[in-house]
Automatic annotation (TrEMBL):
Superkingdom, taxonomy of origin: Eukaryota
MF terms in GO: cellulose binding
Protein name: Carbohydrate binding domain-containing protein
InterPro entries according to UniProt: CBM_49
Keywords: Signal
Length: 122
């Protein structure tokens, strides 16, 4: 019984360290807006911050909703709504704890896109 408890405790510790070790947050700020024939356009600066404890070399950033791209920069586009880190992140030793990079985009909407993160590579 004691051995099983120790094993379960060990597994939970490992799972928790992985969950805590790989964390990215994305915050966004609107920097400009205009309208053409009633169509709103907004410019957004997104800040991707490593809030975990391990270095992150890449991740997939997914536009989950409200992504009506006119243009995007400082991300590698994988498909219409999937992106990865720019190459300079991995070439410069990754994104360390507390550091960030920014990307920007023009959205054909008055609202920001909703992004999620998956497939984090350490």
């Amino acid at each position: 019984m004691f051995t099983k408890l120790v094993l379960i405790s060990f597994i939970l510790t490992i799972l928790t360290s992985y969950a805590i070790g790989d964390k990215l947050t994305i915050s966004q700020t609107q920097t400009s807006s205009w309208s053409v024939n009633g169509q709103p356009f907004t410019v957004w600066e997104a800040k991707v911050t490593n809030t975990g404890s391990r270095i992150i070399y890449d991740a997939t950033i997914i536009g989950e909703s409200n992504l009506e791209l006119e243009n995007i920069w400082s991300l590698e586009q994988k498909s219409s709504n999937k992106f990865s880190f720019p190459k300079f992140i991995s070439q410069n030793s990754g994104l360390k704890n507390g550091t960030y990079f920014t990307f920007g985009y023009i959205n054909k909407s008055s609202q920001s896109a909703i992004f999620s993160v998956c497939d984090i590579i350490n």
